[in-house]
Amino acid sequence: MAPSLLPGAAGGDRIFERGAGGTCFALTTLFTEVLGRLGHSSYPVLCDAPNRVDQHCALVVPFNEVPHLIDPGYLLYEPVPLLAGTHGHVAVVAAGDS
């Protein structure tokens, strides 16, 4: 099970005190917990935002052996397959390719 990032949880307060936490961290933690209780594996990932490195949090869930990004903090309406290309309004590119 992923470590909790919620305020008040062990270590969670540090994230919020340092300004690295917010709605995306709380929602990702919630989704990770819910998916785990439903029997699905997932793990949180840090994401870059425009002009900010590692300032966003989402989670990766494998579906049919393909990792998918689920981003409740950015309100993506469906899982995005982490395969190079455009999926709906989301473009997936390798790190360093922009």
Order of helices and strands: HHEEEEEE
How helical, in percent, are the residues? 10-25%
First CA to last CA: what distance? 33 Å
Structural class: alpha+beta
Uncertain parts: 1-12
> Average pLDDT across residues?
77
What does this structure look like?
The chain has 98 residues and is an alpha+beta fold. The protein is 21% helix and 33% strand. The strands form two sheets. It has a four-stranded antiparallel sheet. Strand 1 and strand 2 (52-63) form a beta hairpin. Mean pLDDT is 77; it is low at 1-12.
In short:
The protein has 98 residues and is of the alpha+beta class. Helices cover 21% and strands 33% of the residues.
Give structural attributes.
98 residues, alpha+beta, four-stranded antiparallel beta sheet, 2 helices
Helices and strands, with pairings:
Elements lengths: L11 H6 L5 H15 L5 E7 L2 E12 L2 E5 L9 E2 L3 E3 L2 E3 L6
Antiparallel strand pairs: 1-2, 2-3, 3-4, 5-6
